[in-house]
Write a structure and sequence with these properties.
Layout (H helix, E strand, L loop, with lengths): L5 H22 L4 H18 L8 E6 L1 H7 L6 H12 L5 E4 L9 H12 L3 E8 L23 E3 L3 H4 L3 E4 L3 E2 L5 E5 L1 E4 L2 E4 L1 H10 L4 E3 L2 E4 L2 E4 L5 E3 L11 E3 H5 L5 H4 L3 E6 L7 E2 L7 E2 H14 L7 H24 L3 H23 L7 H35 L9 H6 L8 E13 L1 H31 L2 E6 L2 E6 L8 H22 L2 H4 L3 E17 L4 E6 L1 H15 L4 E4 H7 L4 H4 L2 E9 L6 E8 L3
Parallel strand pairs: 1-14, 1-15, 2-3, 2-15, 3-5, 21-23
Antiparallel strand pairs: 3-4, 6-7, 7-13, 8-9, 10-11, 11-12, 16-17, 18-20, 18-21, 19-20, 21-22, 23-25, 24-25
Helix pairs in contact: 1-11, 1-13, 4-5, 7-10, 11-12, 11-13, 13-15, 15-16, 16-19
């Protein structure tokens, strides 16, 4: 098995280190520069999943515009709020949760009425934490789990008389960079004081079970709720506002609350009045009321239908952060062509399918982390490969114009019999044919060395077959072109006719070969052929270590320049009048295709003019 190149090994090692570093950072909490992308991708996955029917656990009694109109005042007077609580309590709920801060005293009669109402029912009141920044970021590196819960400067708690009549919990939620509530912390701390969340306190009151904090989860009764770093419970919204059953508090004041919606339910009282300000953007609704966010978290705690994002999930994220970029970079290194790109795309689509399916089934695998781990190494590796490939292709194209790469194969047998062949220069008549690929240098810089090599191999094979069949000798392949002689090792009377026939057949073979190439390649290249007959000087060039048989003289220069004449006149072949006359009127150019001319043309670097014929195929 071939070892991968050193540069590929280095790229894979650096890719693994990059992914591992991001994965370890993710184990300890969200990464700031990844968090924004993760927020957007999470909203997208929520939208793809669509709305769903929430379990029938929570009923919201909303202090809405109608309630404010009936009461004649907002915020709702405490005496009116007491009536709402009493009306709900009369229908037998499991617990009543007031998602509002009762931190300031009201009028004595109203406060007394509310205090008594709270004492007569199983109620939970909201407290709030004041944090030094808007997001309750977990930064403590202590191995003690409780040391990593969100730390508040202080707690805003209900009036003492209300707190004595009901239990309290901290109501804060944690938003991501889009402002969407993404987590509800289950625990909060301020100094040495630990307080439960509002949602967890409500569930505890409704079930009669005390929560137990265990490692990365919280156990309530007979089941566990798995939490993220710092005991954060992820939220998975059911749909737009009103998806969780919502009743107007005005129905409580008018005695019209439906008993079926209240009895044995958790009832959350909160404000949805226009301009109340307690709203959040979510994937399904740009202004979801805060009371519905809290009700979603309460439902998750009881139904266990929220997202799971715990330490185990973050370890899976780490594996993807290392594995995905290694797979993509490895595939790009293994197959540096369309196949490699297709396989890399298949790997990405497979990961995408796994990620979306896991999210749909309640497992929140990070989408942004593998992308952040994969894109930079893949782009850098791809850019490096393109740069190196273009350097190699450019070097190959430049060298191919200067170096004679292949010894004339038609002369090998004669050289074996006569080692002194052309030891001294020989003047003789010969037909000289040049063929060249148009646009080769620009193409070689674009497609890379591997594709260039395959292209040239096909070209060389084609030319070799046709020249051998016509009885000629290839004296050299010059990168994207070839020089062909008809007259070595000994001149023959049929050399001009053979050369003319070879030109026609080469043109036909080249058209067929170009038609088999990809459209993007074939559209960028073409070919041109020049042919002339006259006196050449055949000789060996080089020292004793390496020698090359070649031909020089005006005939060679003219044949080479005739390629330019063909290209400038839109013809496939430019044939000198000398070659055509020597070949005879029954030669291939007269019989096949269309022969135009003669025309007199001047050639670059040569005095005087030359009579030339232009040949076109009939295809």
């Amino acid at each position: 098995m071939r070892r991968p190149p050193l540069q590929t090994l280095i790229a894979l090692v650096l890719t693994a280190v990059w992914g591992l570093g991001l994965g370890i950072m993710n184990l300890h909490g969200d990464i700031p520069f990844v968090d924004g992308a993760e927020a957007t991708l999470t909203n997208l996955r929520d939208t793809i999943g669509g709305s769903r029917q929430p379990p029938d656990i929570v009923t919201i009694v909303a202090i809405d515009d109608e309630t404010s109109r009936v009461a004649g005042h907002y915020p709702l007077p405490r005496a009116t709020l007491a009536k709402v609580v009493d009306a709900i309590a009369a229908l037998g709920p499991k617990a009543i949760a007031l998602d509002m801060l009762l931190v300031d005293p009201g009028d004595e009669a109203g406060d007394a009425a509310l205090e008594q109402s709270l004492k007569r029912t199983n109620a939970v009141l909201a407290a709030a934490g004041i944090f030094p920044e808007s997001r309750q970021r977990v930064t403590d590196d202590s191995k003690e789990p409780l040391a990593r819960v969100p730390s508040a400067l202080q707690f805003l708690e209900p009036q003492e008389r209300f707190a004595g009549a009901a239990s309290t919990g901290v109501v804060n939620v944690q938003t991501d960079k889009t402002g969407t509530p993404r987590f509800v912390p289950m625990l909060f701390r301020s100094g040495e004081r630990i307080e439960p969340s509002f949602s967890m306190r409500v569930v505890s009151a409704a079930t009669g079970e005390q929560p137990v904090v265990i490692s990365d989860r919280i156990k309530i009764g007979g089941h566990s709720v798995y939490t993220d770093t710092g005991y954060l419970m992820p939220l998975s919204f059911y749909g737009p506002r009103g998806t969780i059953r919502t009743l107007s508090a005005s129905a409580a004041l008018s005695g019209q609350l439906p008993e079926a919606a209240i009895r044995d339910h958790i009832v959350v009282i909160g404000a949805t009045v226009t301009g109340g300000g307690d709203v959040f953007p979510t994937p399904f609704d740009p202004v979801l009321p805060g009371v519905e966010v809290i009700s979603t978290s309460i439902t998750h705690l009881i139904a266990r239908d929220g997202l799971i994002r715990d330490h185990g999930i973050r370890y899976i994220d780490l594996y993807f952060a290392v594995g995905m970029p290694l797979i993509i970079v490895g595939l790009l290194a293994w197959r540096r062509n369309t196949i490699g790109l297709i396989m890399a795309l298949c790997a990405i689509l497979a990961w995408l399918g796994i990620n979306i399916s896991a999210f749909k089934h309640g497992f929140w695998l990070s989408a942004a982390l593998p992308i952040a781990a994969t894109v930079p190494p893949a782009l850098l590796f791809g850019a490096a490969q393109i740069w190196l490939g273009r350097r190699q292709a450019g070097r190959l194209a430049a060298q191919s114009e200067r170096l004679q790469r292949i010894q004339a194969p038609g002369l090998a047998e004669h050289l074996a019999r006569d080692p002194a062949f052309l030891a001294e220069p020989v003047h003789q008549e010969a037909a000289v044919v040049f063929i060249d690929i148009n646009g080769f240098t620009g193409l070689s810089e674009a497609i890379g060395p591997t594709a260039v090599r395959e292209l040239l191999n096909g070209f060389f094979h084609l030319v070799d077959e046709e020249v051998t069949a016509s009885g000629g000798a290839i004296t050299s392949f010059m990168g994207d072109g070839a020089m062909i002689l008809f007259g070595l090792p000994q001149p023959k009377r049929t050399d001009p006719a053979n050369a003319a026939r070879c030109c026609i057949h080469l043109a036909g073979r080249m058209r067929g070969w170009l038609a088999t190439l990809p459209e993007g390649t074939a559209s960028r290249i073409g070919f041109k052929i020049g042919a002339h007959f006259g006196t050449i000087v055949a000789s060996r060039l080089g020292d004793g270590g390496r020698q090359q048989i070649t031909a020089t003289g005006d005939t060679v220069n003219v044949a080479s320049r005739l390629m330019e004449v063909a290209a400038s006149n839109g013809a496939e072949i430019a044939i000198s009048d000398d070659l055509l006359l020597s070949a005879g009127s029954d030669s291939a150019p007269y019989i096949e295709g269309r022969l135009d001319g003669p025309i007199d043309t001047s050639l670059r670097g040569r005095a005087g003019s030359l009579t030339v014929w232009l040949w076109h195929s009939r295809v």
